[in-house]
Write a structure and sequence with these properties.
It contains eight helices and no strands. The protein has about 170 residues and is an all-alpha fold. It is globular. The N and C termini lie far apart (about 70 Å). Keywords: Membrane, Transmembrane, Transmembrane helix.
Length: about 170
Amino acid sequence: MNQNEILNLYSPYPKGVRRILKLTWIEFFLRNLPEAFIYILGIHIVSRKYFNILRLIFLSIVLSLTSFFVRWLPIYLGVHMIINIILTISIMAITGIPIIKSIYSTLLVYFMLSLSEFFNLILLNLLNINMEFSNPVTKCLLGIPSLIFLLLFIMIFNYAFKRKEDIKKCL
């Protein structure tokens, strides 16, 4: 038996769901890595932690790799998200963001990510685009709007937070 047959034998969910959860290397580079970069950027902005670009790139690679391998685990649907959130909070705490800020920043940005995915699904549905993607490149290209939505949410949050700080300074 090869590794895939063993994973299929002990997997708790049907084959179609397993195919959705597993990432290919193309999806890793075209979707997971940019998403992790925006995600880490958002966590740093929400937590008001200074960052440099090299640190963001390094943390994006680490988070992408952990997410990639967690999604290959033969676990129930949804458990991989909880594991990824816990790992993200841990990584952010290790890099110097206080644990409380790490928790709420991670959860808030994860909520923004979920919201952006929801808006992307609505957009794809309105445009009558088939959401059953067999080609990983097509799947990644159709996921770009959700990354743009996520970046917009983070920029709006950053603007609102700076505006709030400016108002406090004036008072």
